[in-house]
């Protein structure tokens, strides 16, 4: 069996997406889940995002284009650890990100059999919800508000880490700026992009750490040492769960949001209108 390389993975991702998008759309129609023009465009954009992210994730040098978004998704990952620790009786001392695309959450207590997978699975759940909201402008506005709250919590835990602070402040700034572009339509595609990347982060990161680079300090390796099994096995399970979350987010978006672009813009004008919209009135 030939060795698996970054280029091979990128080619496989691109080929599978190009062939599966029309098949999925036809499958949805056969199952009674109709896809209108606006939803078809959104599905195409999701497919394009996956291909673009897969290529940029693996190609040397140009991969730095994704660096700010990787930092953002890693912040989701660490927030998943932190919020699970708090919900299971633990205490979060700090969250930090570093320039080498890593992050760490320092915490005490909590149920580690829940807090360890909560990083990858938490970012996957965030990604699925953001992908779902990315089908609609108003839903994307709601999602951006929730994201802002999560960012503020992460900012509180990371009050001594400058990289985390800068990453979060820039992300909040982009969320606010996109509210003012085309009645929030740019915000929808931004939320959708973050959702897709966050959904697939665990898949590609686990592949990088456990299959290609064989890093031994991942959440999956720590989980395997404490609770049995192999890190590759747990990584594969978490990756499959992440993909399942993403598919659920897409299906839920198709089922819930049938509005076309014009109707979405009209609905957006009535939900926390921007200054531009108020001036038009």
From TrEMBL:
Q: Write out the entry's keywords from A to Z.
A: Membrane, Transmembrane, Transmembrane helix
Coiled coil segments of this chain: none
Source organism (scientific name):
Dothidotthia symphoricarpi CBS 119687
A GO term for molecular function = metalloendopeptidase activity
User: What SUPFAM superfamilies would the database entry show?
Assistant: FtsH protease domain-like
Lineage top rank: taxon: Eukaryota
In Swiss-Prot or TrEMBL terms, this protein is called: Peptidase M50B-like-domain-containing protein
Q: Where are the transmembrane segments?
A: 40-59, 125-155, 162-181, 187-204, 235-257
Could you tell me the Gene Ontology terms of the biological process aspect for this record?
proteolysis
List the lineage, top down: Eukaryota, Fungi, Dikarya, Ascomycota, Pezizomycotina
**What is one Pfam family matched by this protein?**
Peptidase_M50B
């Amino acid at each position: 069996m030939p060795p698996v390389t970054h280029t091979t993975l990128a080619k496989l991702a691109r080929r599978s997406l190009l062939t599966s998008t029309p098949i999925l759309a036809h499958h949805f129609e056969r199952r009674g889940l109709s896809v209108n023009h606006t939803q078809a465009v959104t599905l195409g954009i999701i497919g394009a995002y996956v291909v673009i992210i897969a290529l940029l994730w693996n190609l040397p040098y140009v991969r730095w284009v994704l660096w700010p978004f990787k930092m953002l998704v890693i912040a989701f990952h660490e927030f998943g650890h932190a919020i699970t620790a708090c919900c299971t009786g633990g205490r979060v001392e700090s969250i930090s990100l570093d320039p080498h695309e890593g992050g760490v959450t320092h915490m005490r207590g909590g149920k580690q059999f829940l807090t360890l997978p909560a990083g990858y699975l938490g970012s996957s759940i965030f990604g699925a919800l953001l992908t779902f909201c990315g089908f609609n402008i108003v839903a994307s506005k709601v999602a951006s508000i929730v994201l802002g709250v999560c960012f503020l919590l992460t900012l509180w835990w990371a009050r001594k880490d400058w990289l985390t602070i800068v990453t979060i402040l820039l992300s909040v700034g982009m969320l606010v700026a996109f509210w003012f572009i085309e009645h929030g339509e740019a915000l929808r595609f931004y939320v959708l992009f973050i959702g897709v990347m966050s959904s697939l982060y665990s898949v590609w990161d686990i592949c990088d750490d456990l299959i290609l680079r064989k890093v031994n300090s991942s959440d999956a390796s720590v989980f395997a040492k404490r609770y049995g099994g192999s890190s590759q096995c747990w990584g594969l399970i978490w990756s499959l769960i992440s993909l399942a979350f993403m598919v659920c987010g897409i299906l839920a978006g198709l089922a819930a949001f049938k509005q076309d672009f014009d109707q979405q813009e009209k609905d957006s004008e009535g939900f926390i209108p921007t200054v531009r919209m108020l001036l038009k009135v």
